[in-house]
Amino acid sequence: MKKTLVLIRHAKSSWTAPLNSDFDRPLNERGEHDAPRIGKRMSDLKLFPDLILASPAKRTAQTAELLARELHYSAEQIEYQEKLYHGSPSVLLDIIISLPAHVNLVFIVAHNPGLTEFANQLIPNFYVDNMPTCSFVAANVENGGWEDFANANVKLLLFETPKKL
Questions:
Q1: 18-22, long-range: CB within 8 Å, 24+ apart, which pairs?
Q2: DSSP 8-state assignment for residue 53
Q3: Where are the alpha helices (H) located in 45-135, listed in sequence order?
Q4: Beta-carbon neighbour count of residue 85 at 10 Å?
Q5: Which portions of the chain are predicted below pLDDT 50?
Q6: How many Å apart are CA 17 and CA 10, to the nearest integer?
Q7: d(CA 107, CA 136)
Q8: Domain ranges of the chain
Q9: What three-state secondary structure class fits 28?
Q10: Alpha-carbon distance 25 to 21, whole Å?
Q11: I want to staple 84 with a disulfide (CB 3.0 to 4.6 A). Which of 45, 110, 144, 149 is the partner?
């Protein structure tokens, strides 16, 4: 069965409280506006996740929750994984190859530079200098299950940014 992977960079975060740690930075107004719009776009495209994995950083958790609301996915079912906080491409790969077989469409909500690097390594003939905030890359994984992901045939489905909407 075909698997679909959606890599999502968190929405725009606030820098107005300079004493906040990077981990504790919340979304700013633009981020709170963009995340539901991207969620609506995903809904229109019928990208309904079986599983949402997210970094537990505040801006990433808020993004995941706003997306989940638009997609009628219970926020209580979002799985937060500490290793997604600034996770490298190798960390992302480790997470993907350990996904359960029953998951056919997974969202990973995380951070740059790891997401951009991973997308660029993963998808043939795809390159982006920097995934903008609240952008997503959706790709179909055609042969085998998640455990075979390292050798899978991956095809770009869509690259979407809030500015395109």
A1: 22/57
A2: E
A3: 58-70, 89-97, 114-122
A4: 18
A5: none
A6: 18
A7: 9
A8: 3-14+22-164
A9: coil
A10: 7
A11: 110
